[in-house]
Amino acid sequence: MLESERRSRTRSLTLRGRTLTWGERTYIMGIVNATPDSFSGDGVAGDVEAATKRAKQMVADGADMIDVGGESTRPGHTPVAEEEEAARVLPVIAALRAALPVPISIDTFKPSVAARALQLGADVINCVWGAIPGITDVAAAADAPLVIMHNRATAEYAGDVVEEVISSLERAVRDAQAAGVTADKIIVDPGIGFGKTAEHNLEILRRLREVSVRLAFPLLLGTSRKSFIGKVTGLPVKERTFGTAASVALSIAGGADIVRVHDVAEMSAVARVADAICRG
Predict the structure, then answer these.
(1) Does 149 map to a domain?
(2) Is residue 69 part of a domain?
(3) Fewer CB within 10 Å: C terminus or N terminus of the chain?
(4) For residue range 83-102, what is the model confidence (pLDDT) as tens digits?
């Protein structure tokens, strides 16, 4: 085992009294979209009761943490003003914190929304634009874990997409650490479906072990129901569970530590079997 892989697989993170030991097993992050326009068609549009019911079911089905987002990031989405996003997610964060013992992640790239969510009981910032100014400051000030995702405005790459993703994430990690985010609080995500074609996504997944070995940080993967699965299978969003299962199992084989999913019960079973095979 390479040194970088050894270091990433022995680090742990404790949240809400729960220790996540990287490399021991795969952790399940359940998705709660407090939006009216989620690509997956499961947005609760700020309905706190519906969001709480869904999150409770996810925890019962095996979710280790819940990720709450209030702005769709699908291609062609309509940007949401800061206060509108806050109005969608903050009541949900407060309700989930009162109802659930598991860690909660706030999916946002707006520093003010992230800071207010942490104050209401969120534990992790999940930023689709990586280690951007403001977000890193909020994470550092709160000593909160930060998910640094790779993203770009267009799916244009001068060279090898995997090399460019790794290099970009390495720079983002340095930026986060320079802002005061400690190494044990950093999680990286290659950004499947963000600024990438279906072929790029497949290439990253095919070579995921390169990413997990070279980046000495826990690795989060979000492949659930995404369009590259639709391109491969020809199936609409709500019929991509089996395709998602294949991508989750192979992501675990490639070194994923956390998988972010819509179908928690099904993907928990996939992860348990994949872990039994891959981790022993």
Answers:
(1) yes
(2) no
(3) C
(4) 999 999 999 999 999 999 99
